[in-house]
Design a protein that fits this description.
- The structure is a homodimer.
- Chain A is of the alpha/beta class.
- Chain A contains 11 helices and 14 strands.
- In chain A, the strands form 4 sheets. An 8-stranded mixed β-sheet of chain A has the order 1-4-8-5-11-12-13-14, with helices on both faces.
- In chain A, helix 1 packs across helix 2 and helix 4 crosses helix 6.
- At the A-B interface, helix 3, helix 4, helix 5, helix 6 and helix 7 of A face helix 3, helix 4, helix 5, helix 6 and helix 7 of B.
Chain lengths: 367, 367
Amino acid sequence: MSDARRYFDLPSPFAMKRGGALTGARLAYETWGTLSAARDNAIFILTGLSPSAHGASNADDATPGWWEDMLGPGKPIDTNRWFVVCVNSLGSCKGSTGPASIDPATDKVYKLTFPELTLEDVGNSAFELMRGLRIGKLACLIGNSMGGMSALGWLLHHPGSVRAHISISTAPQAQPFAIAIRSLQREAIRLDPDWNDGNYDDTHYPEAGMSIARKLGVITYRSAMEWVGRFARIRLDSETRTDEDPFGVEFQVESYLAGHARRFVRSFDPNCYLYLSRASDWFDVAEYGSGHVAAALKRIDVERALVIGVSTDILFPLSQQQEIADGLTTAGARVDFVALDSPQGHDAFLVDIPRFGAAIARFLATL
Amino acid sequence: MSDARRYFDLPSPFAMKRGGALTGARLAYETWGTLSAARDNAIFILTGLSPSAHGASNADDATPGWWEDMLGPGKPIDTNRWFVVCVNSLGSCKGSTGPASIDPATDKVYKLTFPELTLEDVGNSAFELMRGLRIGKLACLIGNSMGGMSALGWLLHHPGSVRAHISISTAPQAQPFAIAIRSLQREAIRLDPDWNDGNYDDTHYPEAGMSIARKLGVITYRSAMEWVGRFARIRLDSETRTDEDPFGVEFQVESYLAGHARRFVRSFDPNCYLYLSRASDWFDVAEYGSGHVAAALKRIDVERALVIGVSTDILFPLSQQQEIADGLTTAGARVDFVALDSPQGHDAFLVDIPRFGAAIARFLATL
């Protein structure tokens, strides 16, 4: 746990979109920079499915964050100018209340008794944090991947609460390819006998299911093109291989996936994963536009927006970023649409800091 | 089992690329049309991973085959003119000898004692069938997907045995994205406790692993674009849903995947799947060109070639089809390269018969 982590108690009960409510729920968050006297320089960051609130190192926690090169003094999101808040999503297991938290009503871990979670709940809870910090209006709301959907949920539910929006590699609604991938990830976890309908523990833990889910994630987060250059057909050293297993790891790309899975499996709670993954499938702004994405986006009220997508992203394709940019333009915002050729696919916003940082810095400089 | 199925006894022992040998092995195949007196009108079809030799209905078996609209009298591969042979791959479980067959040395099912299988073995065994049918030279060798790799293996090992070649949605070598997908499919099977190191039976059978493997296959065989039009975000009728399961199937795309998995799980042997999948990862024509794909392809000796690929294929990208076309051109063949915009991705050759059929008919008419 990061020393820099702060907690915000959500209004209790916190009502959720699909009818549930949370008592005594909280959000974990971290901050960088200083809120101005006018309280008008706040930027909120809503994250993808797995990251914590530790976006970057700060005074309280020097360990590098998941957006270390993007966020800090003199960096693209310059904390000399902006007061930046990174929020751990409601439903996650990195400090915010989620299926892995204790239910105060029973003193037991929620597991599958956690109420049905939507990304609108994630957005609404982050909005409550803004109010709790006595900020009337954000200078900018940034959402990456799943966080981009949560941000659209926020914007639809709270008009007038955000001046500018940065939408990164996200979607106005889950498309069937992304649904298929996520559904299969959930199935891999649920089919693991150690998942046990959510009643696992450290001894009986769905390692195999989580490993498959993570590997499938990594495959779809990157791009085939990048991997041709990066791994080609390079094989592991014969010493590294386990020759007893006739179907064991042989190629570097397999070892790369195994490393990702190993680091993830025990660091993210499987039930939280299931809840957030399902929430992503459910997300559809068209619900706010009589079944039409464009009509829904037209209701969003921001002055300025930057919409960034990557041509090699197979999970959140560029066409969906274009759809968001078009919708916000129709809504009256002045929109910069940036289509990047980063080879890294969906994950490019995490690793292609030269391209993403330049676009974000340029946009923030105009605010 | 199809009544039309014929069997060919491979020369025994049949030596395999990685050192193994098979005793008393056989290939299943089916034929359409009549071999000419000059024995010069034969076309061989090598298939993808899962199809049987039943490419189309014929006099002995009226059930539709997997390429029903492509193959038959008056169809693009016109059996009024051509004598067509479709081969079930060595290592498969549709009549040819594979890991699910009885090892004559032990009278037990091979399972994982089956020798290491490569796609060159698949190609070489099909070549032996050609010789067994007393055909000196094929008019045309057609390979789809995995069968396209097996065909390249044949061509590299048996110069002068084929006049024309049709290469469809395949690869001169497995690239890391495809390796990653197949490795994960194999892992899902192997992690299923019922796989039991290959020692499953009908009662304890790796259903879950096979289901995940198949779903991942179907996801990567099709294209995101096609699914937007086909499934969008349509949900199942509430009656069809199993509401007891909070993470159960909700969207049509999930039900589509479940249907594919259901039909496949018990109809393809898991160990055969593992062997053929691993063989696809191993395949690399560069082995025949001092590490270079182009140098290897340059050694292939055919007069004419048609190379077809699809822009939406994420598993066997168009760039790999271009690579084959370029290599065969350098080798001195007259090559037609056809890049199709079929929306169906890798599977387009199975379903977009209008586009594929036209290209194949046009090419065959020039022979």
